[in-house]
Amino acid sequence: MFFERPEAGETAVLVHVNFRDEKEREDAGELLELVRSAGAVPAILLEGSRPRPDSRTFIGEGKVEEVREALAEHEAELVIFNHSLSPSQQRNLEATLECRVIDRTGLILDIFAQRARTHEGKLQVELAQLEYMSTRLVRGWTHLERQKGGIGLRGPGETQLETDRRLLRVRIKSIHKRLEKVHKQRDQNRRARSRAEIPSLSLVGYTNAGKSTLFNALTTSDVYAADQLFATLDPTLRRLELEDVGQAVLADTVGFIRHLPHKLVEAFQATLQEAAEADLLVHIIDAADPENDRNTEQVNQVLSEIDAGDVPRLLVMNKIDRLDMAPRIERDGFGRPLIVWLSARDGKGVELLMQAFSELLADNVISTRLTLGPEKSRLRAGLHELDAVKDESYDEQGNALLDIRLEKRDFLQLLSHLGESSEDYLGGEHDDLEDWQRELSAERAEKHRVSVTHKT
């Protein structure tokens, strides 16, 4: 768009460098998956080791010559680095090799551009691309650094670079405004679900861990799922029916990846907010991947960036069909589900995951029998209004025997409204109800504080 750069073909020479710093290391196998996901054909993978990147070409003159020979041998027109290049390094390499050079960030952006289907997804990808491009405009138009004078050629006094930057800023600002509207709409939807007390679950995990396959198995949907990186880009929400909980909302989100470009995290903030606002994060892990520990660490890092680090979490070890293992649930010392081992592709263990969902989310539900005398008619009516009465009968004394099931929060609000105490009805069976009542009061106070601050 803004560059006079060499044309790029589909055949690519791949470059991977191992550095001494473990934090800077990338996975060569992951690069091959990224390249195939982008639709390119990897011709050869050139590897090397360096203590630190070369400031001019990233890989040094000797390795640049090796890349040039590989381009000629395989008749390739594209070089893809498994690292992030600075704008000057990218320009120097393209000038020397006389072909298109793409770094890891540009490759991921290209995959995202191919996968985006919804209007929101396309806007997010365009925003990330423009912000990435804005740092690479310098000396892109070497023949138009100054606008010429003369009849029909006089410009507004800007260099071509200044014009490009201004156009970029205008477009980026426009996209930010449109995404802000999307963000507000998502907030409204989440608030509506919150008012309806519908719990939300969000699938998160490293790319290609099997999130969409599991999503389809849980919801009988037909979300696109494939053995490739970033098969899912646009978020999808479906309703689940859980035993002892009722309806819940399950969200499938974009996969994370090691060294995910920060601009992408910012651009997809509205999408990733589904994870930050969830009642339960379902972290999908490829149990057969030898790198799953590092991948899990990367997912946790991205979750911290979007302020979702403290959201309750359930781990799901997927693809156990490759390990010849039986599905099972691992529990903590209190009997709460911690890890579910399953195979989303075969459907083995999916029922155990649904059971774990019910157990974790049912902590917020009261299911008990109440004995109410005639003087408690207002409480009885309130429970009926909440559709919490599952069965009702009367004893010989005329007391109503109610089998109820409802959210703890709803029950506390009803009792508070009627001036009743939870201990009179539940005794010590739910000792944590008073804590819930205090939390509810604190939550109301915080919402009031935020509202006042916003108005001010």
Briefly, what is this?
The chain is α/β, with parallel strands linked by helices.
- Rounded mean pLDDT is 78
Anisotropy-based shape? elongated
Specify the structural class. alpha/beta
Q: How many whole angstroms does the radius of gyration measure?
A: 28 Å
Low-pLDDT stretches are: 139-150, 428-433, 446-456
The percentage of residues in β strands lies in 15-25%
Q: What's the architecture of the domain at 202-363, going by CATH?
A: 3-Layer(aba) Sandwich
The total beta strand count reads: 14
- Oligomeric organization of the protein chains: single chain
Helical fraction equals 40-55%
Structure description:
- It is elongated and about 95 Å long.
- The chain has helices at 28-38, 61-74, 87-97, 104-115, 119-134, 160-195, 211-219, 262-267, 269-276, 292-305, 350-361, 377-385, 408-418, 423-426, 433-455; strands spanning 11-19, 41-50, 78-81, 100-102, 200-205, 236-242, 246-252, 280-286, 313-318, 328-331, 337-341, 365-372, 389-394, 400-407.
- The protein is of the alpha/beta class and 456 residues long.
- It has a 7-stranded mixed sheet, sandwiched between helices. A 4-stranded parallel sheet has the order 2-1-3-4, with helices on both faces. Strands 12-14-13 form a 3-stranded antiparallel sheet.
- A hairpin with a 3-residue loop joins strand 6 (236-242) and strand 7.
- Residues 139-150, 428-433 and 446-456 have low confidence and may be disordered.
- Helix 5 runs antiparallel to helix 6 (160-195) and helix 13 (408-418) crosses helix 15 (433-455).
- The longest helix has 36 residues, at 160-195.
- It has 15 helices and 14 strands.
- Among the domains are: 11-102, 3-Layer(aba) Sandwich (Rossmann fold); 202-363, Rossmann fold (3-Layer(aba) Sandwich), CATH 3.40.50; 365-427, 2-Layer Sandwich (Alpha-Beta Plaits).
- The two termini are 44 Å apart.
- GO terms for molecular function: GTP binding; GTPase activity; metal ion binding; ribosome binding.
- Monomer. Associates with the 50S ribosomal subunit.
- It comes from Cobetia crustatorum.
